[in-house]
């Protein structure tokens, strides 16, 4: 009895194991013909995945390659990509922001892309500069974004040419009880380095020095210098203890809705805000963020979205072909624009959509004086302390002491 | 619990009663039959279940064996075979009955508790993190690849990938067209060779469409041999011709190369040298400049000592720890008191509409805490928040240390009390009403009855839950990260805020500055683990004594 039951169990187990093997073998077997055509795996966030799919399929069919576009949430895309490519299970191509490049390169996760002179000329020069790191092009850009001043033209028909003019108009509207806030510029409890940078740069502040080749130099830190203190003194004058224009209670969550609720006439935001504003039916215009009177122009950060070739991908030759030669077609750039309205980096694609969407040219114009968002790994050390110093100063803390200690914290972390 | 009357039990500590069912009290032993216990007949269902489960185990083992054979990991394979054979032996024979029950739990304990702990401890002794993820070989490959640039003035070739043999296996050849002259050359690992113009046909884009003696590869066929194509470099005087995709090629040169003799990276243009530093896991130049691409090395106790010696960490550590303890105790205690009060009120049979109230009270528990934390954060907004607008006040809640601390505790209270209400309601219903009635007969006031009878009995049942709640809140990352994110921060120190817990504070240290520093993060989690384990151990010991008093 015992031997028999054990025997039956063993036989069954072996049968199942064999079935298991069969099950395992089948995908391998069906994979081999597919592998003959090669599989190209692309990772992008949800919005772009939908826009990319038809193009990826077209490329696959034309070339006998299976293309898989996989959606990964934007906030974990970079870290998942780095981890997965380290383990050899990453994609062949990844789509993401250009300021990832520094980290991706230090982890050996992406390869440089060789673009021909003709291909380079097809892109907006700022976009190309953004994806160039250490003299190499690492990504093929498809969209650009930067901050601009969006204003309610019913409340403020004239575009202000300086911050002082903006404040005067805003205060008048506030006194007339037409608005409750002078300016909607998101600060939040812990600051927002990206949104304050136009004002900071206009007042003469910098984050990093530049190397002779024009790249950011992490060894020359601009935070904590006398220039940065002077810049933050001007920002402090607009803060809660000064004019009350900049407030920590205006956050990433409420700044756009305050504008669409007509609680403020001026909003500093990017192309992503236009969807909500159009929905609210406001009459609005997009102009460059003004600088302080008698100071330099406001230089918003210019960010670029790009395609990268994974260094540890299984199908690098086809990935290079797709990124360098196929992504540069205007049709794809237009489709990506329709999925998420940011100005295309490809000049030809921009010309196609410019007529239908006048905001695009205005946003591009607002970014003309812009500074490329630093892609160096050292930038990771700047965001948090800089933002907190900004929030503290807007809340009334002493600019000199605060920004000096922020500079020290950042310098400690960049070694 | 048992049949002792309350208070009739021994006042001092009694011998600990084991709840392990395998331990049989000695006085039961003589009554046991000396013969072997009756063995139930094997039913068909039991046999089928056993066969399916064992089959699954063997199936998984076979599935796991292939990659091990591929990687030639023979030790791993031996372990796999031994483990599978052991499992089969265990469940196919009738011996080792206790082991049959213990093994599954032990295996899961090993896989999901012991292994992660060991892995974390192991990681704490390395510099694993951004810039130090792979091996030294990976770093060298990355440095060399990143330095390949186009030779100045060299042509951009139009490329067609071809072979002289079978498209799937034959030797690869690059058919290269010089755009300026239209001359076609064939290139492989041995070098470039001009092809006579009459033997080739060139398409309008400059790419070769046919060539005598060569078979052109389609994109699909080329894709299957992607790695070979990427690795093929046609040597030239200046460098090598490499593919850029499948339709273009360029003459490139690696400016930085690894030299095994000096174990260093050399830059061809500047002559600068970066020597490998096995302790840092990076190539370092004489002037201290480091190349960004490093590798993973063991760093000994460096991460652990950094937690103790770095003034940025050890300085605010004590203050953060005290607040962390207050936060955890406040969250657990506050929710318990409020939950218990609600439970007591609704326990009274005089209360009407008890079910409705109970449902309403459980509502906050039913909502996702993630979303609720964000809603609460916006409700505390100074100018636009519901709380200030409703009360007609203008408090900068997250701007002041004490108001921010009070605010996060209020949020915790709201999120947590329904749970305590639920468990307290259950525990109250389990206490016999006769006890309080007897107390009332003996002349005890309701407060005395609660204080002396109900509460101690409740605590026996609820203390483990209170300890669990404390341990959970000690590391309640979301509660802080999604509300204040540590705010307010002192103007002179942006690294640690007034509401920071150890976990949010160290998260900022480990993942804020130079990207992710997993080695350092692992070292910190060892410290936090030790702290929580210590606190829990002490509290459990005290609870057990208390339990023994009341049991």
What descriptive keywords fit this protein?
heterodimer, A: 415 residues, alpha+beta, D-Maltodextrin-Binding Protein, domain 2, 2 domains, 7-stranded mixed sheet, 3-stranded antiparallel sheet, 17 helices, 48% helix, 15% strand, disordered N terminus, B: 551 residues, Periplasmic binding protein-like II, 4 domains, 9-stranded antiparallel sheet, 4-stranded antiparallel sheet, 18 helices, 15 strands, 52% helix
Briefly characterize the structure:
The complex is a heterodimer of chains A (415) and B (551). Chain A is 48% helix and 15% strand.
Characterization of the model:
- The complex is a heterodimer of chains A (415) and B (551).
- Chain A is α+β, with helices and mostly antiparallel strands and 415 residues long.
- Chain A is built from 17 helices and 14 strands.
- In chain A, the strands form four sheets. In chain A, strands 1, 2, 3, 4, 7, 13 and 14 form a seven-stranded mixed beta sheet that branches.
- In chain A, helix 8 packs across helix 9, helix 9 (226-237) crosses helix 17 (399-413) and helix 13 crosses helix 14 (347-354).
- Residues 1-36 of chain A have low confidence and may be disordered.
- Helices cover 52% and strands 12% of the residues of chain B.
- Chain B has 18 helices and 15 strands.
- Chain B has helices spanning 44-70, 74-92, 97-124, 136-146, 219-224, 226-231, 302-309, 311-314, 317-347, 354-366, 369-379, 386-391, 401-430, 433-441, 446-474, 477-481, 502-512, 518-550, and strands at 148-150, 156-163, 172-177, 184-188, 191-194, 200-202, 208-211, 215-216, 234-235, 240-244, 248-254, 256-259, 264-267, 273-277, 282-285.
- Classes of the chains: A alpha+beta (415), B alpha+beta (551).
- Chains A and B meet through helix 1, helix 3, helix 4, helix 12 and helix 16 of A and helix 1, helix 4, strand 1, helix 5 and helix 6 of B.
């Amino acid at each position: 009895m015992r031997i028999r039951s054990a025997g039956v169990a063993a036989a069954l187990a072996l049968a199942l194991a064999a079935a298991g093997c069969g099950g395992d073998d089948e995908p391998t077997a069906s994979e081999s013909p597919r592998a003959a055509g090669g599989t190209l795996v692309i990772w992008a966030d949800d919005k772009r995945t939908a826009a990319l799919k038809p193009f990826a399929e077209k490329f696959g069919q034309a070339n006998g390659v299976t293309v898989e576009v996989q959606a990964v949430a934007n906030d974990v895309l970079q870290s998942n990509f780095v981890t997965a490519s380290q383990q050899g299970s990453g994609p062949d191509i990844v789509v993401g922001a250009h300021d990832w490049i520094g980290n991706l390169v230090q982890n050996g996760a992406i390869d440089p892309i060789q673009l021909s002179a003709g291909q380079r000329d097809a892109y907006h020069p700022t976009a190309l500069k953004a994806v160039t790191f250490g003299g190499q092009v690492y990504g093929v850009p498809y969209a650009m974004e930067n901050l601009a001043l969006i204003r309610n033209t019913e409340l403020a028909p004239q575009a202000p040419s300086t911050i002082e003019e903006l404040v005067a108009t805003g205060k008048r509207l506030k006194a007339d009880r037409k608005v409750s806030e002078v300016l909607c510029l998101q600060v939040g409890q812990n600051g927002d380095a990206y949104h304050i940078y136009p004002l900071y740069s206009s007042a003469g502040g910098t984050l990093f020095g530049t190397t002779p080749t024009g790249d950011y130099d992490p060894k020359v830190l601009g935070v904590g210098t006398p220039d940065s203190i002077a810049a933050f003194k001007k920002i402090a004058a607009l803060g809660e203890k000064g004019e009350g224009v900049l407030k920590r209670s205006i956050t990433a969550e409420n700044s756009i809705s305050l504008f669409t609720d007509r609680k403020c006439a001026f909003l500093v935001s990017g192309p992503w805000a236009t969807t909500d504003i159009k929905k609210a039916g406001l009459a609005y215009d997009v102009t460059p963020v003004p600088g302080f009177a008698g100071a330099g122009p406001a230089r918003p950060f210019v960010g670029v979205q790009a395609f990268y070739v994974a260094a540890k991908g299984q199908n690098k030759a086809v990935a290079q072909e797709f990124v360098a030669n196929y992504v540069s077609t205007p049709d794809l750039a237009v489709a990506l624009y329709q999925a998420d309205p940011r100005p295309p980096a490809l000049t030809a694609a921009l010309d196609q959509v410019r007529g239908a969407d006048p905001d695009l040219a205005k946003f591009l114009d607002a970014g003309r004086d812009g500074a490329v968002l630093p892609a160096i790994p050292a930038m990771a050390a700047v965001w948090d302390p800089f933002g907190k110093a900004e929030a503290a100063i807007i809340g009334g803390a002493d600019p000199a002491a605060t920004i000096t200690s922020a500079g020290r914290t950042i310098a400690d972390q960049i070694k | 619990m048992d049949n002792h009357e309350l208070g009739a039990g021994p006042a001092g500590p009694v011998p600990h009663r084991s709840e392990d069912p395998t331990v049989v009290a000695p006085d039961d032993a003589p009554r046991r039959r000396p013969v072997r216990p009756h063995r139930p007949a094997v039913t068909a269902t039991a046999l089928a279940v056993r066969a399916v489960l064992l089959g699954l185990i063997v199936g998984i083992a076979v599935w796991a064996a292939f990659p091990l054979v591929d990687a030639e990991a023979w030790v791993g394979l031996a372990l796999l075979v031994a483990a599978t054979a052991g499992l089969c032996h265990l469940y196919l024979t009738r011996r080792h009955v206790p082991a049959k029950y213990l093994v599954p739990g032990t295996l899961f304990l090993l896989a999901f508790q012991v292994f992660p702990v060991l892995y974390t401890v192991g990681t704490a002794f390395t510099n694993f993190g951004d810039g130090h993820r792979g091996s030294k070989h990976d770093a060298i490959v990355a440095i060399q690849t990143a330095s390949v640039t186009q030779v100045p003035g060299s042509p951009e070739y139009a490329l067609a990938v071809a072979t002289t043999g079978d498209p799937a296996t034959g030797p690869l050849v690059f058919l290269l067209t010089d755009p300026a002259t239209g001359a076609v050359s064939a290139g492989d690992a041995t070098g470039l060779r001009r092809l006579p113009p009459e033997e080739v046909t060139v398409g309008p884009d400059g790419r070769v469409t046919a060539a005598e003696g060569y078979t052109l590869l389609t994109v699909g066929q080329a894709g299957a041999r992607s790695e070979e194509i990427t690795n093929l470099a046609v040597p030239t005087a200046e460098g090598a011709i490499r593919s850029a995709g499948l339709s273009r090629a360029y003459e490139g040169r690696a400016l930085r190369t690894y030299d095994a003799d000096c174990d260093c990276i050399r830059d061809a243009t500047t002559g600068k040298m970066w020597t490998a530093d096995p302790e840092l896991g990076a190539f370092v130049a004489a002037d201290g400049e480091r190349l960004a691409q490093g590798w993973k090395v063991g760093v000994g106790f460096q991460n652990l000592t950094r937690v103790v010696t770095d003034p940025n960490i050890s300085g605010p550590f004590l203050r953060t720890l005290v607040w962390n303890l207050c936060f955890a105790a406040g969250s657990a205690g506050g929710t318990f008191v409020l939950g218990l009060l609600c439970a007591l009120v609704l326990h009274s049979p005089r209360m009407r509409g008890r079910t409705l109230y109970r449902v309403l009270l459980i509502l906050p528990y039913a909502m996702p805490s993630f979303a609720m934390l964000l809603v609460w954060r916006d409700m505390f907004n100074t100018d636009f928040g519901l709380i200030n607008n409703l009360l007609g006040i203008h408090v900068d809640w997250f701007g002041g240390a004490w108001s921010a601390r009070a605010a996060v505790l209020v949020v915790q209270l709201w999120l947590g009390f329904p749970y305590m209400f639920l468990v307290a309601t259950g525990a109250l219903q389990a206490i016999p009403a006769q006890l309080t009635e007897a107390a009332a007969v003996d002349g005890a006031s309701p407060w005395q009855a609660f204080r002396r009878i109900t509460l101690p009995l409740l605590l026996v049942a609820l203390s483990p839950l209170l300890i669990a709640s404390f341990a959970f809140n000690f590391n309640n990352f979301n509660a802080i990260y999604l509300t204040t994110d540590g705010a307010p921060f002192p103007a002179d120190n942006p690294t640690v805020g007034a509401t920071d817990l150890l976990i949010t504070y160290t998260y900022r240290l480990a993942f804020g500055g130079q990207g992710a520093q997993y080695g350092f993060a692992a070292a910190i989690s060892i410290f936090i683990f030790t702290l929580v384990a210590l606190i829990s151990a002490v509290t459990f010991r005290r609870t057990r004594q208390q339990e023994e008093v009341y049991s």
